[in-house]
Automatic annotation (TrEMBL):
The keyword Nucleotide-binding does not apply. This is Site-specific recombinase. InterPro entries: Aquaporin-like (IPR023271), Site-sp_rcmbase (IPR011385). It is a multi-pass membrane protein.
Length: 657
């Protein structure tokens, strides 16, 4: 049978990898399975021996530490340092040391898509191939490999210990820096294990196995400490730096377990499976080592989860479960609409002050921010903020589907309640903003002798609502983005408050104690702990809405925002200023515009929020597809429930059909 390789080719491993890579590309384009690839590629014994000989030669002449302790783990420099390093390496790659196994490994799997075909081949196929490729390994090479593995194990244990006693982690886990700390215990046990293995000729297999089991106990206790921080995120809070440290610590412990298992197991098949798993990790790591997207996504997922989780607690208050909650939301929305109507009037008067562009943006932002914060303090609602606050509540139900067999029915019911709650809140906001702004416009006219807006400004306010002749829809989408971002900001500041222990610091502040006393200070701390996220989110939302137009004017881009409640209030001001001389066409176009603006606000805000929430909880597409299908079926069969509250029995039947 004809040989697969050219007879005078020296780089046999590289040639083999290239051959498998090309076969995978053929299979990928044809859509055929790629599981039995090794059985389809002919290799005679001579070619296998040459591949094995060259691979073993590389292993015997290179250092393992960098590959085993850094690949897919990274350095201890921190999130932003690693991020800037990856960005610089994209333009000017570093010099790789030729005596490092990691360098040789990267050259062998040089194609950026190699990790795909490496992963596509099942572990069992890889293990079987490697077993036939390396039937016997000479003692000097085997001893050298074992020494390099022990060196990597020692370094991994020390790095894990260093991270385990970092101040960021110690502050969340008291006593982990004591002598009884599992991290310090892990380091002691690993040093003993490595020293005895290398230098103690009397170190029996039984003693070695006992020490190995002690190390596993220490690793288990270290992992328990990590889980404790995850489970008590509400109590501890989370930060970008802590997230980075926790991820690295988990990776060190995982890699340490893999290498110890590789050394200790006597089953050859088990050894090859472990090597295969490491191979897949290393190939993926080397192919994506300069990927900025991967770095950001990997390290921010936990932080995003924590930030969005805070909004889910607030979001539960925006979902009406029964008729009482439904009409309670309506009353809160009416209160919010009244305040927004006055904000519209105040903004219009600010417009006629003809401030310079910076000061106009400043006062617009102040008008919005103070108004939104007042809405929050008084317990009213701004309807379009609800989707951003409730998205993670939906995601939480989807991500817990494994623990809840009825997750689809319960999540469908939750979504129906959310849509219904959003509908009545939008109605409450918009339906009151118009008459209040209209009435205040006439009251202003009777008091001062002129309207809030002149005819030119009034016509402009109406034209801005016309979705056929203006950029109302894109501007409403921009507002939807801001509404989503304000929800994230709320979660961020709630988490920041907990993480930095601001409540305790306020209660212990000596000057504040003398000024307010313990009772008032405690009340203030409790109020801020419960409301700091909402206040911060509303403040920044006002800042975004008030400054967008000025930013667009400065850079020469037609940027602006449209919000349903402000659109309704502005329409009321315009109608009053034109003394009710509005044609039927303008009425119809304006009402259509207000409704379209509201829909765009909600769709963008909720859509972006749910994407962030689902990503932070690693929810799969299958769950989302099932939910959308069930929700669509419910809408066509029980559409009334999406807009008005139904009885408990009827609602139960709705979600169980």
């Amino acid at each position: 049978m004809k040989s697969t390789f050219l007879p005078n080719r020296i780089d046999y491993p590289g040639k083999f990898i290239e051959l498998v890579r090309n076969r995978w590309k053929e299979k990928e384009n044809s859509g055929q399975p790629f599981e039995e690839v090794f059985q389809q590629i002919y290799l005679d014994r001579r070619e296998k021996d040459l591949i094995a000989e060259q691979i073993l030669s590389v292993l015997f002449s290179t250092k393992f530490v960098s590959l085993l302790t850094e690949s897919e783990i990274g350095s201890n420099r921190g999130f932003f340092s690693d991020l800037s390093e990856r960005m610089s390496y994209k333009f000017l790659p570093p010099i790789n040391e030729p005596d490092e196994l990691r360098t040789q490994f990267g050259q062998l799997f040089s194609d950026k898509k190699d990790y795909r075909w490496v992963k596509a081949i099942p572990d069992e196929n890889w293990a079987a191939f490697l077993d036939t490729l390396f039937p016997h390994i000479q003692a000097p090479i085997r001893n050298y490999i074992e020494k390099e593995l022990l060196n990597a194990i020692l370094i991994l244990a020390q790095r894990a210990t260093n991270l385990g006693i970092e101040p960021e982690i110690v502050s969340k886990l008291p006593r982990v820096d004591d002598l009884d700390s599992p991290f310090l215990g892990l380091n002691r046990e690993v040093i003993l294990y490595v020293e005895n293995t290398l230098n103690n000729p009397d170190y029996s297999a039984k003693d070695k196995d006992n020490d190995y089991r002690h190390i596993l106990v220490m690793i288990s206790q270290c992992n328990s400490q990590v889980l404790q921080i995850y489970r008590h995120k509400d109590q501890f809070g989370i930060s970008l730096q802590l997230t980075y440290l926790m991820r690295q610590l988990e990776q060190y412990l995982k890699r340490l377990t893999q290498l110890l298992d590789l050394l200790q197991t006597s089953e050859k098949s088990r050894q090859w499976i472990i090597i295969t798993q490491l191979l897949k990790e290393f190939v993926y790591a080397e192919n994506t080592k300069y990927s900025i997207r991967k770095h950001v996504n990997t390290n921010l997922q936990l932080l995003t989860f924590k930030v969005i989780e805070n909004t889910s607690k607030t979001g539960e208050h925006y979902i009406a479960a029964d008729r009482n909650d439904y009409w309670k939301l309506f009353r809160k929305a009416v209160g919010g609409g009244i305040i927004v109507a006055f904000l519209c009037c105040n903004k219009t008067r600010l417009y006629f002050q003809h401030f310079p562009i910076f000061w106009e943006a400043f006062f617009y932002s102040l008008n919005y921010s103070l108004g939104f914060m007042l809405i929050h303090i008084l317990g009213f609602t701004l309807a379009t903020k609800q989707p951003a606050m409730t998205a993670s509540t939906i995601a939480a139900n989807l991500s817990n589907n494994g623990e809840n067999p009825n997750w689809l029915q319960k999540t469908t019911l939750l979504l129906i309640r959310l849509i219904r709650s959003q509908f009545i809140s939008l109605v409450g906001n918009a339906i009151i903003a118009f008459p209040v702004a209209f009435g205040f416009g006439w009251l202003y006219f009777f008091t001062f002798g002129y309207h809030i807006a002149d005819p030119a400004k009034a016509l402009r306010l109406i034209r801005e609502l016309n979705i056929w002749e203006s950029l109302a829809i894109p501007h409403a989408a921009i507002a939807g983005v801001y509404l989503m971002v304000s929800g994230l900001i709320s979660g961020y500041y709630e988490n920041k408050w907990i993480y930095n222990k601001y409540s305790l610091r306020i209660r212990k502040h000596p000057r504040l104690i003398r000024l307010l006393g313990h009772q008032k200070l405690d009340k203030t701390a409790r109020y801020l702990e419960s409301n700091i996220g909402g206040l911060a989110g509303n403040f920044f939302l006002g800042l975004f809405l008030g400054s967008t137009s000025a930013v667009g004017f400065t850079i020469g881009v037609p940027l602006d925002i449209r919000h349903i409640t402000f659109a309704s209030g502005n329409f009321g001001i315009a109608v009053a200023s034109l003394q009710n001389n509005i044609t039927t066409e303008l009425w119809v176009n304006s009402i259509i515009g207000i409704c379209a603006i509201g829909m765009m606000n909600v769709l963008v805000s909720f859509g972006l929020s749910i994407v962030f929430a689902l990503n932070s909880r690693s929810v799969g597409f299958r769950e989302v597809k099932s939910l959308v299908a069930n929700l669509s079926w419910q809408f066509f069969n029980n559409g009334t429930a999406f807009f008005f509250p139904v009885g408990a029995k009827e609602e139960e039947e709705t979600t169980n059909t």
